[in-house]
Amino acid sequence: MKRGRAEGRTIKPRRNSERVASPAERAQITLTINGTRHTADVEVRKTLADFIREEAGLTGTHLGCEHGVCGACTIHLDGQAVRSCLMFAVQAQGAEITTVESLGTPERLHPLQEAFRDHHGLQCGFCTPGILMSTLAFLRESPHPSDEQIREVLSGNLCRCTGYQGIVAAVRDAARRMRGTA
Amino acid sequence: MKPAPFKYVAPESLDDAVALLRRHGQEGKILAGGQSLVPLLNMRLARPAVIIDLNRLRPLDYIKNGKDVRIGAMTRQRVAELSPLVRQKLPLLAEALRYVGHPQIRNRGTIGGSIAHADPSAELPAVLAALEGKVVLQNGRGTRTLGADAFFLTYLTTALQPDELLVEVRIPAHDHLGTAFLEVARRHGDYALVGVAAVVDWNGGRARDVRLTFTGVGGVPVRVAEAEAAATGRPLTDAVLAEVSRIVSAGLDPEADIHASAEYRKHVAGVLAERALRVAVTRAQRRERDTR
């Protein structure tokens, strides 16, 4: 028999703690990636990195270590560089995300990408998306960086190919190019 | 999908957060900046049933001036690092924050999260201990305030009860003191093998008070009282500093691990103590000159 209101369910006065939302295993979220709104029903344990790659199909963001050490998954969350493997997609509800795909196109590279090409700032390219997103945020804050500052910010991104010399040269040159375009 | 399944809730008020913590007790785990917890979840070293995410709690994001500067637990490390108030009043904290991970980590990591996590290799617990700061803990019945020495119990373990939330960190303003933070790490941004926070109250060519607090040499931030006593009330000549350095090395009992032997850690701690004291005294003297 269907339970109806008429059965006189007693309504207890709500205690403070009962106002609180109940924990859930899935959630519907809406967030913006590179200017496009994405709405999806996701498991709450899905990392933002996996959301970007699997739900939004943007595979430029790479996953290396998946515990915050290698920096390959670095993206911008509301303008700030963060590790997308160290937060859950559900935490990005309402946020503006930008990924490496937002930088330039093959025909019209971003000055940062041009500098990396010209200075051999990459070999296999696996770490490159994270390095580009880290250094982009850095150069916006520090348009006249010293080599020491450049090396300090790059310490958050592991590259196993280049030995970093080309990367440092690329960031130094990118700073000059970006000052020119600003 | 890396972490084991969990349930998730993101309270929007402090009352709700405390109520959730009371309801879920040991099953619940607080998620602050996530820069230590999410790696543990991703590696399935931690498998809490319920994650209580504090990132929607805007009221815990503040830095307030005073004799003790009061920092809301959910204040991002990067925000504190760049805060003019922190730079002016809490120079030791500002200096130590630059060693916490990388900017990408500090954009998410929080002041309260790092202190509640209580990793003895981490910088912020040492800063709190060195300055004899306090933490404010809240549960459904009220708040209590604990000093750093009562708060840190051992490795990753604090006096926080399962129903308690760390809501505020209080650090005494120390712009009148000479301070320095130094560490030795394999790579910049890694957890340090050893770190030191030096605090010197300099007056008339002598140290009126000296505090030396080390990271990475025990289960909690470690102070070496004999070394502090040896540096107090004396001009810090090369001979005195060498003596302090020896006492530090002899007085510590660190563990060995894959990164460094116990002997090496003792040696590095002594060297860092001497260097940090020199820097702290130089800064105190400069301050004395500037304020004269």
Strand and helix layout:
The complex is a heterodimer of chains A (182) and B (292).
Chain A: E1 26-33, E2 36-43, H1 48-55, E3 74-77, E4 80-83, E5 96-98, H2 111-118, H3 128-141, H4 147-154, H5 165-181
Parallel strand pairs in A: 1-5
Antiparallel strand pairs in A: 1-2, 3-4, 3-5
Helix pairs in contact in A: 2-5
Chain B: E1 7-9, H1 14-24, E2 28-31, H2 37-42, E3 50-53, E4 63-64, E5 68-72, H3 77-82, H4 84-89, H5 91-97, H6 103-106, H7 111-117, H8 123-130, E6 134-139, E7 142-147, H9 148-151, E8 152-154, E9 157-158, E10 165-172, E11 178-184, E12 194-203, E13 206-215, E14 222-223, H10 225-231, H11 238-251, H12 262-291
Parallel strand pairs in B: 1-3, 2-3
Antiparallel strand pairs in B: 4-5, 5-10, 6-7, 6-10, 8-9, 11-12, 12-13, 13-14
Brief account:
The complex is a heterodimer of chains A (182) and B (292). In chain A, 30% of the residues lie in helices and 15% in strands. With 182 residues, chain A is an alpha+beta fold.
Any descriptors?
heterodimer; A: 182 residues; alpha+beta; Ubiquitin-like (UB roll); DNA polymerase, domain 1; 2 domains; 5 helices; 5 strands; disordered N terminus; B: 292 residues; Uridine Diphospho-n-acetylenolpyruvylglucosamine Reductase, domain 2; Uridine Diphospho-n-acetylenolpyruvylglucosamine Reductase, domain 3; 3 domains; 5-stranded antiparallel sheet; 4-stranded antiparallel sheet; 12 helices
Summarize the structure in words.
- The complex is a heterodimer of chains A (182) and B (292).
- Chain A is of the alpha+beta class.
- Chain A has helices spanning 48-55, 111-118, 128-141, 147-154, 165-181, and strands spanning 26-33, 36-43, 74-77, 80-83, 96-98.
- A 5-stranded mixed β-sheet of chain A has the order 2-1-5-3-4, sandwiched between helices.
- In chain A, a hairpin with a 2-residue loop joins strand 3 (74-77) and strand 4.
- The relative contact order of chain A is 0.13.
- Chain B has 292 residues and is an alpha+beta fold.
- Helices cover 38% and strands 25% of the residues of chain B.
- Chain B is built from 12 helices and 14 strands.
- In chain B, the strands form 4 sheets. In chain B, strands 4-5-10-6-7 form a 5-stranded antiparallel β-sheet.
- In chain B, a hairpin with a 2-residue loop joins strand 6 (134-139) and strand 7 (142-147).
- The mean pLDDT of chain B is 96.
- The chains are: A alpha+beta (182), B alpha+beta (292).
- The interface between A and B is large, with 40 and 41 residues.
